[in-house]
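Hi there, hope your week has been kind to you so far. For a while now I've been wondering how a particular protein folds. I'm sending you its amino acid sequence along with the backbone structure tokens. Could you read through the record and tell me how the tokens relate to the sequence? Take your time with it, there's no hurry, and the full record follows here.
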Amino acid sequence: MIVGGLLAVGSAAGAVVPAPPSQLGLCAACHGKHGKSVVAGVPNLAGQRYAYLINAMHQYRDGRRNVAVMRAALGPLRVSELKALAHWYAAQPLAPSLSGGSH
């Protein structure tokens, strides 16, 4: 059931998990659908704090983090789409990186 942009998912704790965002495929190509990186050297996003993710996305968009592929990917997205992506990845279970460390 969709409730206010969130997908209600039953669990023992009754947690509400966000619905997969419409722009997820753009990020999933490298970061994985559930935030577990599919490319060595690309950080996992699963379980990162929402505030960290949204701040990082804005920094990529405005060039404070100078990564051309991220700027190109995030540049055309609306703020509401950035927020949906940040909520999605923040809601995923924390994932260890491919190198064994955490990002």
